[in-house]
C-alpha cells in the first residue's frame, strides 16, 4: 500500500466501469476517495454502503469517503480530481468545474484520447480558470459495473503512457502517478500519448467489420472473434496511419503487437495473433448497439483530431478518413464538425511546425 499522497482526499468523477475500477484501485492504495456521478441511483448499493465491492484482478470491499452528484462539491473537497467520464463530455465537465478550480488543483483524465488534456485546459482557460495542472492517460482497466454495488475488473494494463499539457506538468506529477499506477511511463508529448491507444485503432475498425451483427445485438467476443485473417487489414492500415502521423510529430508509436504485449502480455507477432492471446480479451463481448462509445468516443475524440494533425503534416490517412465517414453516416452526426477539432483545442491556426514547437516546449 502506498503512502497517502493527498490526505484531503482524491475525487473520481464518473461511475462507469473505468471510474468504479479507478476508485476501487485508489482506495486499495490507501487514498481517501470521493466518488461523483450524475446518477447516484444507478449505483444505489455503492451509495448506501459507501464502498465498492470489487472482483477480478482487484478484490475486496473498498471504502469510499463520500458518494455524490455535485462536481463543484467534489472540487471543494479534493485537490486532485480523476475524470473518468466519457471523453466526449470533457468540454461540459471542464466548463462546470472551472468556477471551482484554482492553481492548487490537479486534474487527471482517464482516458484522454488524443489531446484530451489540451482540450480540457483550453476550456478551463476560456472560462477564466488558469494554471490548473491537467494530465491525461489512457483507460487502465478492462472493467464492467457489477450490479449497483460493485465492479468486475477483468484486467489492468501493465504499461501505459501519461503526459501533462506541458513537459513541466508531466515532470511535476511523475513520482506520484507512478507510485499509484506502477505501469505508467511519461510520454514524449500529448500526441504520442494519444496515438498510443489500441482502443482508438481497434474499436472503430472492428465495429465496421461487424456492423450488422452489432446492430442485431448478436453475441460476439469483440476482440477474439471480431476480425478474420482478411478483415484484420482494416485495423492494420489504421495502425499504420497512426504510426505515420506519430513520426511527423516526433511521437513514435509501437506496433499493435508491441503495444498489446506492453499492455497485458501476449503471444504472436501479428495484430490478429496478439489480440487472440490477450487474456482479458477472452471474455469481452461486443456492444449490442451502434450507438456506443466504441464509435462515438474514439472517432470523435481521436480519429478526427488525428486526421487534422495529418493534414497539417501532409500525411495521407485514407483508412482513418473512411472510418470517420462510415461512423458519421451510421450515427447521423458529422463528427468532423462535432468532434474534437484542432480549432476546439486552440490549435486551429497553427502550422505543423508551430504545433511541433508547442509539443516540444
- CATH class of the largest domain equals Alpha Beta
Biggest sheet character: 8 strands, mixed
* Proper CATH architecture of the largest domain: 3-Layer(aba) Sandwich
Number of domains: 2
> How far apart, in Å, are the first and last alpha carbons?
35 Å
CATH superfamily of the largest domain: NAD(P)-binding Rossmann-like Domain
Indicate the structural class: alpha/beta
- How much of the polypeptide forms β-strand, as a percent range? 15-25%
How do the SSEs run, as a string of H and E?
EHEHEEEHEHEHEEEEHEHHHHHHHHHHH
Count of helix runs: 17
Q: Based on Cα principal axes, name the global outline.
A: globular
Strand order of the largest sheet: 5-2-1-6-7-8-11-12
Q: Return the CATH topology of the largest domain.
A: Rossmann fold
Low-confidence stretches: none
Rg is 19 Å
Number of E-type strands: 12
Amino acid at each position: 500500500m502506498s503512502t497517502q499522497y493527498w490526505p484531503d482526499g482524491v475525487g473520481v468523477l464518473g461511475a462507469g466501469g473505468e471510474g468504479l475500477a479507478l476508485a476501487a484501485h485508489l482506495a486499495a492504495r490507501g487514498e481517501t476517495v470521493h466518488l461523483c456521478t450524475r446518477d447516484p441511483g444507478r449505483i444505489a448499493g455503492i451509495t448506501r454502503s459507501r464502498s465498492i465491492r470489487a472482483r477480478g484482478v482487484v478484490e475486496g470491499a473498498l471504502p469510499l469517503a463520500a458518494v455524490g452528484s455535485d462536481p463543484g462539491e467534489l472540487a471543494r473537497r479534493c485537490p486532485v480530481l480523476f475524470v473518468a467520464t466519457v471523453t466526449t463530455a470533457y468540454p461540459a465537465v471542464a466548463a462546470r468545474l472551472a468556477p471551482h478550480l484554482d492553481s492548487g488543483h490537479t486534474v487527471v483524465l482517464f482516458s484522454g484520447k488524443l489531446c484530451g488534456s489540451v482540450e480540457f485546459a483550453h476550456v478551463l482557460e476560456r472560462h477564466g480558470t488558469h494554471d490548473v495542472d491537467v494530465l491525461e492517460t489512457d483507460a487502465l482497466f478492462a472493467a464492467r459495473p457489477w450490479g449497483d454495488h460493485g465492479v468486475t475488473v477483468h484486467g489492468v494494463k501493465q504499461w501505459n503512457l501519461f503526459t501533462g499539457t506541458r513537459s513541466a506538468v508531466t515532470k511535476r506529477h511523475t513520482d506520484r502517478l507512478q507510485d499509484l499506477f506502477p505501469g505508467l511511463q511519461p510520454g514524449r508529448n500529448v500526441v504520442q500519448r494519444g496515438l498510443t491507444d489500441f482502443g482508438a485503432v481497434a474499436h472503430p475498425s472492428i465495429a465496421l467489420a461487424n456492423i450488422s451483427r452489432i446492430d442485431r445485438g448478436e453475441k460476439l467476443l469483440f476482440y477474439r472473434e471480431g476480425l478474420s485473417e482478411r478483415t484484420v487489414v482494416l485495423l492494420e492500415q489504421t495502425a499504420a496511419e497512426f504510426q505515420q502521423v506519430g513520426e511527423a510529430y516526433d511521437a513514435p508509436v509501437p506496433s499493435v503487437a508491441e503495444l498489446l504485449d506492453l499492455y497485458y502480455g501476449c503471444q504472436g507477432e501479428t495484430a490478429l495473433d496478439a489480440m487472440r492471446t490477450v487474456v482479458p480479451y477472452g471474455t469481452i463481448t461486443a456492444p449490442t448497439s451502434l450507438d456506443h462509445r466504441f464509435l462515438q468516443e474514439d472517432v470523435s475524440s481521436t480519429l478526427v483530431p488525428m486526421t487534422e494533425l495529418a493534414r497539417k503534416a501532409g500525411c495521407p490517412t485514407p483508412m482513418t478518413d473512411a472510418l470517420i465517414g462510415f461512423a458519421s453516416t451510421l450515427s447521423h452526426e458529422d463528427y468532423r464538425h462535432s468532434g474534437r477539432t484542432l480549432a476546439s483545442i486552440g490549435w486551429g491556426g497553427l502550422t505543423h511546425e508551430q504545433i511541433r514547437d508547442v509539443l516540444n516546449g
